[in-house]
From TrEMBL:
UniProt source species: Paenibacillus apii
InterPro entries cross-referenced by the UniProt entry: SinR/SinI_dimer_dom, SinR/SinI_dimer_dom_sf
Keyword DNA-binding belongs to the record: yes
Highest rank taxon of the organism: Bacteria
Any one GO molecular-function label of the UniProt entry: DNA binding
Pfam families for the chain: SinI (PF08671)
Protein name: DNA-binding anti-repressor SinI
Keyword list, A-Z: DNA-binding
GO process annotations (BP): regulation of DNA-templated transcription
Domain Sin: 8-46
């Protein structure tokens, strides 16, 4: 039985990205910025990029 936690590269990147988002959202919360504000900001940026 393989007990390696290496997984696929995509899985590792996803976990790292998820952890970065959690960290950023917690930092933003401490600064008084709500998650909805962050989502709106990125949604607006995405629309402008298109």
């Amino acid at each position: 039985m393989d007990k390696s936690n290496q997984g696929k590269i995509e899985e590792l990147q996803t976990v790292e990205l998820d952890m970065e988002w959690v960290y950023l959202l917690l930092k933003a919360k401490k600064q008084g910025i709500h998650a909805d504000e962050i989502r709106r900001f990125f949604n607006d940026r995405t629309l402008k990029a298109m």
